[in-house]
């Protein structure tokens, strides 16, 4: 039953019932219309309470209906208008969540009572649309332009206590919101209702609305780089101040339709569901997320308090998991402790600002700092986060193997080392797993969970569940050098480097990719990560430094094209932000503002002259094609090798760990949107002209999918079914 009704004296309680989140699907809306019509004409009913079953008001419109064949036939705003115009008072009893259409429904009620642990908001912008059931018109009428704009444009979740302070809800209660709403309904029977009908009120403001919104628009254009939904939200809020309510609603609808035509909502909604689907991991053996139980992690330890370790400790503590943090000497322990404490103070500050919804039983977990390995022996799970050196990691795992209780899980935070080799030195390879965090680990949402050959399904389930507890989006991947994200980055950065050889400057390549929507172009990203990281790895592989065989041409390795520019910068001590100079110059070592460096321009000019490289006419569009298609081609190889279970997994990794613009869905979604045939043609053309760049040779899977007509991305798995699976 999509909605049910009970009677409490003269108050009808209508309950939305559509598990798991009471989405306002077409059947729910139809049921609401029917129940409303009945209570309106029922003389025994004097007031109405609207609530949701199972402690959740509603997570809004059913997003799956937006792109399904069965498009909505019932308008949510029509239901809202119907509720608002009712002559019997309607009170919303808000519990759990009231998001999107859920909050819009509550705003059409005459009164709102919320449980203290509720979160509410209008997060439509995060799925590429705008609140299109009157939210952009009613919320500014209730709380004013600046506060409404902040909630609508950022799509943030507002805790009940803040909602009360802002005036979104009339009462916050620590116990049943339904009981409190019934009480309130009884009290307001017979009271005047006009001022409670938000659509009839004017927006109150004492600011220059146009100037305020113009500034917000400019800021949003810079901040959201090409995403259209935030801009549409601002325009809709502008309409609330400038137009009568009904014309504001028309504007809202018109903006919704224009957004839909951009294709961005479809990409963002694909990203939304992909994030949920990656949690539903499946192994070829049939074990999966819903038939393997994770073990409970009551205590954890982190080894190494460098940048990664500090973030991981903070992240665990933030999730209320007591942590033991270990370093090798007093100096490093002290500096790690200081850094962790300062990160935790900031987190505590944030929790305080978020108010009561986080306060109860959800503080920070304790952190114990130690130099003594023995202190770790009873924890349930340990995460090793020392720097990327196989021998060092193996030494630590040998030690852990002998110290830790037999059922403790051993995780390694590596960005690409072989999990099997690390597991091979332990007495429990089935409990060893890779947990690749992204920096800063207390903030970045992505966690690559890397399955080794012997990793057990229970270990996978536990690591995936830990990821969820930490508020991360965990993606299960197979074990191969660099795993998924970093592996795909290789060919992308290679093309970016070649573009410099061919006449571009770092800032031009970065600009093209930032205009595409990346949070950071490749050169700014390399400067941030530290150029020495890649340099050390190339030296280990004999591609740079003294290990290069004598007589090897500077721009060739093993017969293939090679770009030594990054190595040359490192030889000059230009490691990026940390040294104050890299592809850019910074105000000081550790400075964060990248400025184009005339020295780099000069250096590149001399380099091109030395190697007699003719500047080619590379059209700016080709910057995008070369970098992005190189990355995408490697993504197809990842799928071919069975390292990721589907294109969604790759897209979730890129959206959450590499600054890919969500409004473009992810690299594999982008490829399907551009057309696989088009991607293949460009790669083929490039590879024909540059046979010494093997990464641009079109992958087998891309060719196969293009040959069957480039099916929609949701059908790729059918083709993947016949490929090996290393999960
Ligand atoms: C021209 C006019 C057109 C009119 C259109 C009217 C406009 C209405 C605007 C809207 O209301 S759009 C929807 C706005 N709401 C949201 O964006 C909320 C999205 N959901 C969430 O943020 C979270 O799911 C949650 C509610 C905070 C719960 O988080 P939790 O971590 O507890 O669970 P999840 O794993 O995320 O979700 C559980 C389950 O529910 C599915 N789901 C969640 N929300 C929706 C939804 N709004 N519609 C459909 N399905 C939803 C989610 O996909 C999970 O299911 P799955 O099977 O595991 O994937």
UniProtKB/TrEMBL annotation:
Domain spans labelled 3-hydroxyacyl-CoA dehydrogenase NAD binding: 300-479
Primary localisation category: other
Pathway(s) per entry: Lipid metabolism; fatty acid beta-oxidation
EC number: 1.1.1.35, 4.2.1.17, 5.3.3.8
Domain (3-hydroxyacyl-CoA dehydrogenase C-terminal): residue spans on this chain: 483-586, 623-708
Domain of life: Eukaryota
Keyword Lyase: yes
Catalytic activity: (3E)-decenoyl-CoA = (2E)-decenoyl-CoA; (3S)-hydroxyhexadecanoyl-CoA + NAD(+) = 3-oxohexadecanoyl-CoA + NADH + H(+); (3Z)-hexenoyl-CoA = (2E)-hexenoyl-CoA; a (3S)-3-hydroxyacyl-CoA + NAD(+) = a 3-oxoacyl-CoA + NADH + H(+)
A GO term, aspect molecular function: enoyl-CoA hydratase activity
Family matches, as Gene3D superfamilies: 1.10.1040.50, 2-enoyl-CoA Hydratase, Chain A, domain 1, NAD(P)-binding Rossmann-like Domain
GO BP terms, alphabetized: fatty acid beta-oxidation
Alphabetical UniProt keywords: Acetylation, Fatty acid metabolism, Isomerase, Lipid metabolism, Lyase, Multifunctional enzyme, NAD, Oxidoreductase, Peroxisome
A GO CC term assigned to this protein in UniProt: peroxisome
Compartment(s) of residence: Peroxisome
Complex formation: Monomer.
Similarity comment text for this entry: In the N-terminal section; belongs to the enoyl-CoA hydratase/isomerase family. Belongs to the enoyl-CoA hydratase/isomerase family.
The protein, known as: Peroxisomal bifunctional enzyme
Organism: Xenopus tropicalis (Western clawed frog)
Encoding gene (name): ehhadh
């Amino acid at each position: 039953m999509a909605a049910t009704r009970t009677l409490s004296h003269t108050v009808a309680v209508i309950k939305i019932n559509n598990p798991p989140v009471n989405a306002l699907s077409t059947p729910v809306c139809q049921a609401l219309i029917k129940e409303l019509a009945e209570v309106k004409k029922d003389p025994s009913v004097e007031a109405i309470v609207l609530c949701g079953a199972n402690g959740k008001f509603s997570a809004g419109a059913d997003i799956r209906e937006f792109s399904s064949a069965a498009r909505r036939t019932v308008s949510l705003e029509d239901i809202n208008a119907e509720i608002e115009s009712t002559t019997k008072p309607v009170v919303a009893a808000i519990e759990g969540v009231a998001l999107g259409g859920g909050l819009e429904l509550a705003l059409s009620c005459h009164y709102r009572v919320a449980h203290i642990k509720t979160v509410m908001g209008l997060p439509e912008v995060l799925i590429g649309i705008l609140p299109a059931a009157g939210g952009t018109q009613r919320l500014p009428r209730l709380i004013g332009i600046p506060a409404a704009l902040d909630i609508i444009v950022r799509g943030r979740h507002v805790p009940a206590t803040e909602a009360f302070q802002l005036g979104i809800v009339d009462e916050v209660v620590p116990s049943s919101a339904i009981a409190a709403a019934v009480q309130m309904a009884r009290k307001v029977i017979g009271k005047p209702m006009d001022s409670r009908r938000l659509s009839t009120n004017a927006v109150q403001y004492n600011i220059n609305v146009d100037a305020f919104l113009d500034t917000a628009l400019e800021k949003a254009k810079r901040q959201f780089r090409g995403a259209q939904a935030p801009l549409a939200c601002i325009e809709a809020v502008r309409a609330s101040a400038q137009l009568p309510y009904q014309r504001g609603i028309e504007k809202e609808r018109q903006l919704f339709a224009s957004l839909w035509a951009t294709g961005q909502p479809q990409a963002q909604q694909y990203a939304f569901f992909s994030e949920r689907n990656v949690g539903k991991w499946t192994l070829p053996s049939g074990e999966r997320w819903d038939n393997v139980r994770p073990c409970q992690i009551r205590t954890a330890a982190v080894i190494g308090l460098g940048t990664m370790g500090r973030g991981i400790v903070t992240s665990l503590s933030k999730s209320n998991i007591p942590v033991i943090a270990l370093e090798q000497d007093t100096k490093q322990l002290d500096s790690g402790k200081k850094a962790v404490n300062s990160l935790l103070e900031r987190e505590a500050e944030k929790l305080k600002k978020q108010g009561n919804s986080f306060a109860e039983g959800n503080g920070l977990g304790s952190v114990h700092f130690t130099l003594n390995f023995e202190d770790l022996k009873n924890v349930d799970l340990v995460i090793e986060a020392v720097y990327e050196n196989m021998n060092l990691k193996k030494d630590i795992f040998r030690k852990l193997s002998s110290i830790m209780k037999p059922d403790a899980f051993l995780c390694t935070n590596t960005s690409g080392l072989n999990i099997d080799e690390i597991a091979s030195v332990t007495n429990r390879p089935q409990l060893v797993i890779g947990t690749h965090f992204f920096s800063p680990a207390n903030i970045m949402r992505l966690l690559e969970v890397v399955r080794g050959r012997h990793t057990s399904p229970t270990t996978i389930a536990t690591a995936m569940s830990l990821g969820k507890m930490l508020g991360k989006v965990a993606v299960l991947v197979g074990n191969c050098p660099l795993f998924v994200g970093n592996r795909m980055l290789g060919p992308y950065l290679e093309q970016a480097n070649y573009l410099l050889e061919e006449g571009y400057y770092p800032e031009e390549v970065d600009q093209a990719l930032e205009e595409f929507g990346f949070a950071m172009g490749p050169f700014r990203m390399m400067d941030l990560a530290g150029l020495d990281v890649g340099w050390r790895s190339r030296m280990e592989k004999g591609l740079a430094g003294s290990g290069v065989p004598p007589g090897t041409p500077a721009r060739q390795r093993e017969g293939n094209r090679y770009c030594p520019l990054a190595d040359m910068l490192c030889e000059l001590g230009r490691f990026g932000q940390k040294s104050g100079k890299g592809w850019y110059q910074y105000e000081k070592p550790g400075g964060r503002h990248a400025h184009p460096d005339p020295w780099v321009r000069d250096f590149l000019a001399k380099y091109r002259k030395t190697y007699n490289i003719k500047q080619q006419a590379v059209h700016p569009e080709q910057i995008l094609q070369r970098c992005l298609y190189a990355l995408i081609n490697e993504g197809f190889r990842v799928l071919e090798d069975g390292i990721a279970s589907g294109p969604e997994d790759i897209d979730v990794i890129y959206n959450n760990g590499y600054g890919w613009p969500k409004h473009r869905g992810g690299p594999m979604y982008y490829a399907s949107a551009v057309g696989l045939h088009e991607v293949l043609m460009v790669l083929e053309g490039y590879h024909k002209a540059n046979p010494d760049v093997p990464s641009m040779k079109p992958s087998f899977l891309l060719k196969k999918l293009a040959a069957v007509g480039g099916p929609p991305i949701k059908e790729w798995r059918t083709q993947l079914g016949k490929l090996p699976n290393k999960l």
